TrEMBL record:
Residues 228-378 form the DNA mismatch repair protein S5 domain. Pfam families: DNA_mis_repair, HATPase_c_3, MutL_C. The lineage of its organism: Eukaryota, Metazoa, Ecdysozoa, Arthropoda, Hexapoda. GO terms for biological process: mismatch repair. This is Mismatch repair endonuclease PMS2. CDD domains: HATPase_MutL-MLH-PMS-like, MutL_Trans_hPMS_2_like. It comes from Hermetia illucens.
């Protein structure tokens, strides 16, 4: 049967046409609202921008059924109903210049329009000038379908139902991962609860049983510290320290930290710091004390803002944790950091969700943050180490005066370097009469000093190696048709004179490892010109334009014959001016050697081709463990273990198995330990010790909900709780009993870790805290087959079959690999 012929597209289908407005609207809307968290964020931002002092977020079934956001803001006037959900209609921006000073969360006018395209939207609003409210039901294009009068106090209510209903794939993913998406939404919402002052935010959820639960609530306080207390409780406040300013109040200029200590990774020169001093940044923030026990095991309590706008600045987050870990290596801090700077120095229009920002002088900002945190932590007892002494550099001074032997003019040094490098390229001699500037230890990492050191280092290298690269042996003269008396140094035609000059004179290039190819003299005979149409005058003109390639000798003692000198990379001389030919003499032995060499190259090529066909290429080497594990995971499925042939035991510690043409080596102890560990993880329920007096635990409302939804998981880990529904949120849980096991003791930190693991875990997943996992790993190790034990065939078969029953059979709980590929037998047969 002949394959079906695919018809070519007709000419009309190739025509470039504009995409329909409805299609564009749906495509672009999917890029604006990416998740449940972004949908709620956009609505809350609109409420705050409208001047609301009360914002209520009500979800049903964690947002799958509906999302309702209610505020008491100014409402929407009737004349703005049509523009309310129109694309790029907004009251917050008029032209592009306004973007530099925008102080509202939203400014593009696309949030409500995009939500209309993705779900069913209805809006109920009443403006301060209206006597009655209005309910608007909208279609997916943002047009008003139904407009009715209704009772409503001043403010706006936006209701979303069937979220992502127009994008089936995204809706299924949301339903599948609703727990993780809900937690992400709560995390983003907490940032607005913390930074918004004078606004009360309440978030509730109605579960599948119809019970309403409050998971976020603030009192509308005027300080961020009070908001932190509302969200995380008074206990968190006790461990916080206010972040100090990088520059003391009343000082226009400030001191910076020793560049060697903090600044080497930032690549900031003193001159750059002088251009914009640290006083332009102000910080409003709090951070956990660096004293042990004040931080947290996880970094889920870190919030960053720029001019009160929540964001995720990755480099700043990294810098904050880096400084904290200098003092407390085992914990992560709670962080609330609001960076205040000029709005014109911040670009907020980078991503649709506006959570990635571009900040002018970000490296300088990071330096200011490091300075502020170091000053903050210095007052904590027993955290300041002598090797962290802070040295100051006054920003009013351009640079410290250096010794006379360091002071030489940069411009003259660059010119000297250009001349020296050009001379060395042409003749191999730098004329080593010039003294080498003495370079002492740098006092500052400023750009001028770096350039001085690089130039001096290259100058030393050139003078040391001057003349050594030119062979001293005399070469036979070559015959040139033209009666030229100058010595030619021909460069590669691919490299222009401009490129040579740039490569030799650029002081900023990294020339520490500069390696000039040796100049060689060879015996050649040059016959007739390659081109009969090009005149001798043209050739002479071309030669004169390549001044960097022609060096004329004025010596009277120069013989009439010339040596043609060329670089290794000038293997196409004939393409420039002449056509060359060589007479080659070769012996039978040399021919035989060439044949052997060709056979070796062919064999090497075959070996490479065979290697490309192999599934498993990684060597048995600790540095290749990751590659080996990826190959095994991609090349072996669980059902293959039962079909592997047992070859035997090796060295009373390893099992050799065969599958198809591949041989594998299996660590008998590691593989048995992995199986025993997973069995303990799945089936063991730890013993509990009841407390004499139940202990009330304080959680965030979200963590409290996660705990209440996963009581069976906690019970399997030995924790039992009592839930008091009448108690206020964050204090509903009482600990009745906790697990124990000989020398192991468990408590609140293990509960917090387990809650964090359950944030993103799929339903019905058995999670274990790390300390319980360590206990199980120790037990599994002791009960497994030991190295040195002789195994029967049936025992080896059982161990290999068990590898197909575990989730991750490639490493034992302590990190030892269980299995590695040895050799492919088919490849061995090809070689023999």
């Amino acid at each position: 049967m002949e394959p079906e012929q695919i018809e070519c597209a007709d000419e009309s289908s190739k025509e470039i046409k504009a995409i329909g407005k409805d299609t564009v609207h749906r495509i672009c809307s999917g890029q604006v609202v990416l998740s449940l968290a972004i949908a709620v964020k956009e609505l809350v931002e609109n409420c705050i921008d409208a001047g609301a002092t009360l914002v209520e977020v009500k979800l049903k079934k964690q947002g799958l059924e509906s999302i309702e956001v209610v505020d008491n803001g100014a409402g929407v006037e009737e004349k703005n109903f049509q523009g309310l959900t129109a694309k790029h209609y907004t009251s917050k921006l008029r032209d592009f210049e306004d973007l530099r000073s925008v102080d509202t969360f939203g400014f593009r006018g696309e949030a409500l329009s995009s939500l209309c395209a993705l779900c069913d939207v209805s809006i109920t609003t009443r403006h301060t000038s209206a006597e009655i409210g209005t309910k608007l039901e909208l279609d997916h294009s943002g047009n008003i379908k139904i407009q009715t009068a209704c009772a409503r106090c001043i403010g706006t209510t936006v209701t979303l139902t069937n979220i992502f209903g127009t994008l089936p794939v995204r809706q299924r993913e949301l339903s599948k991962n609703i727990k993780a998406e809900f937690n992400k939404m709560c995390q983003i919402l907490r940032a607005y609860c913390l930074v918004t002052k004078g606004v009360r935010i309440i978030c509730t959820n109605q579960n599948s049983k119809g019970i309403w639960q409050t998971f976020l609530c603030t009192r509308g306080s005027q300080t961020a510290l009070a908001n932190i207390e509302d969200i995380y409780g008074a206990k968190e406040i006790q461990n916080l320290m206010e972040i100090k300013q990088p520059v003391e109040e009343g000082k226009e200029e400030g001191n910076i930290l020793d560049l060697q200590d903090l600044n080497t990774s930032l690549d900031i020169s003193t001159s750059n710091i002088e251009l914009s001093h640290l006083a332009k940044f102000k910080f409003e923030g709090w951070i956990s004390s660096c004293a042990h026990g004040s931080g947290h095991k996880l970094k889920d309590r870190q919030y960053f803002f720029v001019n009160s706008r929540p964001c995720e600045p990755k480099q700043i987050i990294k810098a904050v944790n880096e400084i904290y870990h200098r003092y407390n290596l085992r914990e992560y801090p709670f962080v609330y950091l609001n960076i205040l700077t000029s709005k014109s120095d911040v670009d907020v229009n980078l991503t649709p969700d506006k959570r990635q920002l571009l900040i002018n002088n970000e490296k300088l900002l990071i330096l200011a943050i490091k300075l502020a945190l170091t000053k903050t932590f210095q007052v904590v007892p027993s955290t300041f180490r002598p090797d962290q002494t802070i040295h100051s550099v006054d920003l009013n001074k351009t640079a410290e005066k250096e010794d006379d032997d360091e002071n030489f003019d940069l411009t003259s040094s660059q010119e000297k370097f250009k001349s020296m490098l050009s001379q060395w390229k042409a003749t191999g001699n730098t004329g080593g009469n010039e003294p080498i500037p003495k370079v002492t230890k740098r006092k500052q990492m400023d750009e001028i000093t770096v350039q001085k050191m690089k130039l001096a280092k290259i100058q030393q290298y050139l003078e040391r190696d001057a003349g050594s690269s030119v062979p001293s042996a005399k070469t036979s003269p070559c015959k040139v048709q033209q009666n030229e008396t100058s010595k030619l140094a021909i460069r590669s035609p691919e490299k222009s004179a401009t490129e040579e000059e740039a490569s030799s004179s650029s002081p900023s290039a990294d020339t520490d490892d500069y390696d000039q190819p040796p100049v060689k003299a060879v015996k050649m005979e040059i016959f007739e010109p390659i081109s009969t149409t090009r005149s001798e005058q043209e050739v002479q003109a071309i030669a004169e334009t390549h001044t960097s390639s022609v060096a004329a000798s004025d010596s009277d003692e120069e013989p009439p014959s010339q040596d043609l000198v060329y670089d290794d990379d000038s293997n196409d001389i004939g393409k420039t001016f002449f056509e060359e030919s060589e007479t080659i003499s070769i012996t039978p032995d040399e021919i035989e050697a060439l044949v052997i060499r060709e056979e070796k190259l062919a064999k090497s090529s075959r070996d490479k081709a065979n290697l490309a066909k192999l599934k498993f290429k990684a060597e048995i080497n600790p540095s290749k463990n990751k590659n080996a594990e990826e190959e095994l995971e991609g090349g072996i499925t669980k059902d293959m273990f039962a079909r592997m042939d047992i070859i035997g035991q090796y060295n009373l510690g390893f099992i050799i198995v065969k599958f198809d043409d591949d041989l594998f080596i299996v660590d008998q102890h590691a593989t048995d330990e992995m199986y025993n560990f997973e069995m303990l993880q799945r089936s063991t329920q730890l013993q509990s010790q009841k407390l004499a007096v139940p202990k009330t635990l304080e959680f965030t409302t979200v963590n409290e909900m996660i705990l209440m939804d996963n009581l069976e998981v906690f019970k399997a880990n030995g924790f039992e709780f009592e839930i008091d529904q009448e108690a206020p949120a964050t204090r509903r849980v009482k600990l009745l009993s906790k697990p124990f096991s000989k020398n192991w003791e468990f408590g609140k930190n293990d509960i917090d870790e387990l809650i964090f693991m359950l944030h993103d875990a799929p339903p019905n997943t058995m999670c274990r805290p790390s300390r319980i996992r360590s206990m199980f790993a120790s037990r599994a190790c002791r009960k497994s087959v030991m190295i040195g034990t002789a195994l029967k065939q049936t025992t080896m078969r059982q161990l290999i079959d068990h590898m197909g029953e575990v989730d991750k059979p490639w490493n034992c709980p302590h990190g030892r690999p269980t299995m590695r590929h040895l050799v492919n037998l088919a490849m061995l047969n090809d070689q023999t």
